[in-house]
Amino acid sequence: MILLLGPAGLLLLVVFAAPLLHYAWLSYHADSVVTGLEPVLNHGANWIRLLQDQRFWQDATQTLRFALVSVGVELLLALAIALLLDQRWRGRGAVRAIALIPWALPTTVMALGWRWIFNTPYGPLDQLAHALGWPSLNLLASPAITWIATVVGDVWKTTPFAALILLAGLQTIPGDLYEALRLEGGSSWVCFRRITLPLLRPYLALALLFRLAQAFGVFDLIQVMTGGGPASSTESLALYAYLNAMRFLDFGYSATVVSGSFLLLLGLCLGGWLLSLGLSRPQRQQEV
Amino acid sequence: MTSALRRLQPWMVAALTMALLVAGSMVWVQARPTESVNILMPAPFADATQPLVKRFNQEHRGRIRLTVTRGPLETEAISDLAISSLLLGDTPFDALLMDITWVPKYVAADWLQPLDPWFGPEAMAALAEGVRAGNSINDVLYRWPLVASMGLLYWRTDLIDQPPRTPQELVTISRQLQADGRVPWGYVWEGRQYEGLSCVVLELVHGFGGFWFQPDQAAVGLNQPQAIAAVAWLRQLISEGISPEAVTNYAEPEALQSFKAGDAAFMRNWPYAWAELQQPGSAVRGRVGITTMVANSGDPSTATLGSWGLSMLRGSAHPEATATAMRFLSSTESQKALFLSHGYTPTAASLYRDPELIALNPILPQLEEALEHALPRPETPLYAQISDVLQRDLSASLTGQQSAAQGMERASANTEAILRSAGGTP
Amino acid sequence: MPHQRRLWIVLLLAWSLGPLLWQLYTSFCSDQALVAPLAATPERWTLAHYRAVLNSQPPFWRYLLNSLFVGTSSTLLTLVIALPAAYALTRLKPWIARPARLLLLAAALFPYVLLFLALLEVARSLHLGNNLLALSIPYAALSQPLAILLLTAAFRDLPLDLEDAARLEGMRLWQRLRWVLIPLIAPATTSTAILVFLFSWNEYPIALTWISDASLLTLPVAMARIAGSSIYSVPYGAYAAATVLGSIPLVLLVLVFQKSIVSGLTSGAVKG
After folding, report:
1. Contact between C19 and A23 using a beta-carbon 8 Å cutoff
2. How big, in percent rounded to 5, are the helix, strand and coil portions of chain B?
3. Within an 8 Å CB–CB cutoff, is residue A52 touching chain B?
4. CATH number assigned to the domain comprising residue A217
5. Strands (E), C41-126
6. Quick one: which of B196, A156, A75, B323 has its CA closest to C18?
7. Cβ of B84 under 8 Å from any chain A Cβ?
8. Range(s) of the domain holding residue A199
């Protein structure tokens, strides 16, 4: 038994548990190029700095905004796609395969592609705007809206994944339920609201949870598409942690940023879980 | 038997000669292998130095082969590229064209080779005075400057006779010119939240008698009255309409554009802007003068020093060859060529008095004078972080979200937090 | 087929393929045509961009090869470790198995990019940098949660009598695994293998920090470097060509293995 579980357990401990503990430890040390990249105890100076670090909190807000908007849009789109693919029609398998392509591509490959698509003035969107007589869109150079371009890139890539999860859920719903409701005179919308949505809930929750956690750690897309964006307006927490380590050579503070991000993520998940409990209680009361 | 041997003799001699030749050439080749030197440079410099590299390889054919690796366009991305290798203990490059602000960081990480064996005091003495700063840490030379740059105040010679020397003068003259309707704006400068803003503010803080950061004593001067006064003055420029609101989003290109179109009486920019202003499409062609930044009387007129220089990486396999390449690229002939082709400001003192160059760019003597006022940005490994924090709070102050005093207090507190967190306080 | 549905299908196809098709289109456009991609221009088509990308130093196929190598070795390593672990998990008492599965789920959800710093320090101290084989170790480790969850579900689906029969025939544990159990879950193993391969191929932050040597870069890191090096004045022809070349292997992979991918993900969703 030990032999069977040993290697996996070891790898998991080394790769998941050990780093988190190490970060917690390292965040209480100064470990930068100034200390010769050796950890020196600094009694929480990193954490004090984190609390007053405007860039960290700006990035936290931006990352949260990115995650919530991106996942929200994704789930809506994914639901639509899943409903479409759930029905039986000719060529469904081929379309499903094609819909999967965005998810299979490496993020950085398509991030480059998105830079080109959003390019001012040669990208197709800008060309379209010119043709319609609008001014240049400048989508990648304005701190107020560049983040929306990154959301588009993220939604395009990850929607198929969510769609597949929801599709799996849809396929577990027995068809007789719909028939029964239709015989009672229910319309498509009523079917959707009273059968599909409630039964899809665990799958929606799974997709939501999975995608929120992944979106919170967004790195590849941002780094290649905007590099943190005009004036750090699209910078994510992961990118900030990376810059602290690789550009500023401050490993101690990078560990602090990662730990802070992890705590925020835990808070987010906890908040989401409490919210879902709160939402389901009135529902249960209704059913009773 | 002897007759057979005698017949073979010529063949034996030939064979022996051949063998000796082959062995000799092998020994010769091994004794003088071609050393390859690889230097990483930002893309514009890599392109500009192409002809120089070609000449070098021709002159040193068979002994040294120099290649210049073309790095990304973005300044910081070049350092990122080098660091990603250096952190893993690998040095694919022998030398790096370094921005002046990276030197303390690379030296602290022990990635640079001291250059004293190859560039001694005589070489140093040949440099223009202002260029010597920022290349040595603790009296050890780590970077040899290639291109010099300093912050300048551009002024319109057709609007006024003498440029302003104090901030108050600049404001008075601008107000007058604007009231007379001769020019829409008084002063355009780089106010966007980026490294250029740090350069602008460094000059003014010193011009008001203050300082930003002194690494030796780990002293932060941002929350002192002089620095606050400097920032308040910048904010006043915007709030009183001497500089447009949009200046808080200007980088060098935007300020240049505005001044080139004749929309401003004064501009802060780098030497490269001069050539741009003399182009046919410029509305101020032939009517531009340069001088150093304004300062309160009794306080130093300061020009932020920006320069690129060559540093040798510690793991280089061919230090001698690399030093030869570095010396070649920074020689007076090479600098002259770079100036003629791309307008890069030279570092050798003699070139500032070269009549051929002055004929092309009459402001060279003034540039040399400006170099005497040149000041590098705080030389600390933590420069990138403290600059970022300053830019943030400055930007908030300049856009009116907080007062100058508040902004500088926060910047100072943040800077000290960074020092403590990174172990920078002694 | 109802017209409304056809419209949705067309929209879906346009949305999924549109961005890629634009890259394909512009990758063949000459530089003048790129400046006005939608206008009619003489001298429109060119292969120059592809030539530029394929002839770069190091050559583009090198990155594909590196990614292939890392992908294959991580997949093998993952399976070798995860298969026994998944089997063991099905034989554990429920009071250990359930929390273990929850922990694995939490690990699968975790944004692994946050681990880059610790892994970088591992690479520095153990000198694992710039080594494609060493890179498969963190990849295998990061793939364990998903792989174990999927394979456990597959093992649990097998009827117990099969293994009992094998045990009665005198087969030891390893023999049972090798000859009976693992072959029976082959479809799930294939799905898991493909998903792990996809993950390794597309992984970016760890490859970025562990590999700096230009000739050892995997595809995503190479693309990011190309992205950072704005070489041309109207650069995007080469970018588009690079995007197309970088996408081809995966598009093929998806089209060939789509059933496997879908079944892997959906079964994971249903049973996980």
Report:
1. no
2. 50, 15, 35
3. yes
4. 1.10.3720.10
5. none
6. A156
7. yes
8. 24-287
Cα gap B250→B234, rounded to integer Å: 14
pLDDT greater at residue C50 or residue C2: C50
A38-52 tens-digit pLDDT? 888 888 899 999 999
Check CB contact of A40 with chain B, cutoff 8 Å.
Answer: yes
> How many residues are present in chain A?
288
Give me the interface pTM, i.e. the ipTM.
0.88
For residue B193, the chain A residue with the least C-alpha distance is: A231
Looking at the domain that runs over B35-149+306-368, which CATH code has it been given?
3.40.190.10
Residues of A whose CB is below 8 A from B102: none
Give this prediction's pTM: 0.89
Residue B229 sits at the vertex; the CA angle it makes with B102 and B411, to the nearest 5 degrees, is 45
**Which residue's structure tokens are 């290639």?**
B146
Average pLDDT over all residues of chain B:
90
Contact of C21 with chain A, judged by CB distance below 8 Å, is answered with no
Question: In CATH, what is the architecture of C59-218+249-271?
Answer: Orthogonal Bundle (1.10)
* Burial per residue of B175-192, b for 16 or more beta-carbon CB atoms within 10 angstroms, e otherwise: eebbeeeebebbbbbbbb
In this complex, the residue of C208, C228, C231 whose CB is nearest that of residue B77 is: C228
Please say if the pLDDT value at position B112 is more than 80.
Answer: yes
Q: pLDDT tens digit string along B380-391?
A: 999 999 999 999
The label of the residue with tokens 């789920």 reads C105
Fold exhibited by the domain B150-304+377-422? D-Maltodextrin-Binding Protein; domain 2 (3.40.190)
Query: Residue C159 — left, alpha, or beta (φ > 0 → left; ψ -120 to 50 → alpha)?
Result: beta
Least confident of A278-287, B390-399, C90-99: A278-287
Residue type, B324: T
Asked if C90 and C101 count as a contact pair (C-beta separation under 8 A), the reply is no
**Amino acid at position B321, single letter:** A
In the three-class reduction of DSSP (H, G, I as helix; E, B as strand; rest coil), residue B35 is classed as strand
DSSP B426: -
CA dist A191 and C194 (Å) reads: 36
Q: Is B63 helix (H, G, I), strand (E, B) or coil?
A: coil
Residue closest to B128 by CA, chosen among B147, B112, B151, B153: B147
The SS3 assignment for C106 reads: helix
* Ordered DSSP codes for chain A: -HHHHHHHHHHHIIIIIHHHHHHHHHTTEE-BGGGTT--EE-TTHHHHHHHT-HHHHHHHHHHHHHHHHHHHHHHHHHHHHHHHHHS--TTHHHHHHHHHHHHHS-HHHHHHHHHHHT-TTTSHHHHHHHHTTPPP--TTS-TTTHHHHHHHHHHHHHHHHHHHHHHHHHTTS-HHHHHHHHHTT--HHHHIIIIIHHHHHHHHHHHHHHHHHHHHT--HHHHHHTTT-GGGSS--HHHHHHHHHHTS-BHHHHHHHHHHHHHHHHHHHHHHHHHHHHHHHHHHHHH-
Residues in chain B: 426
Number of H helices, E strands in chain C: 14, 0
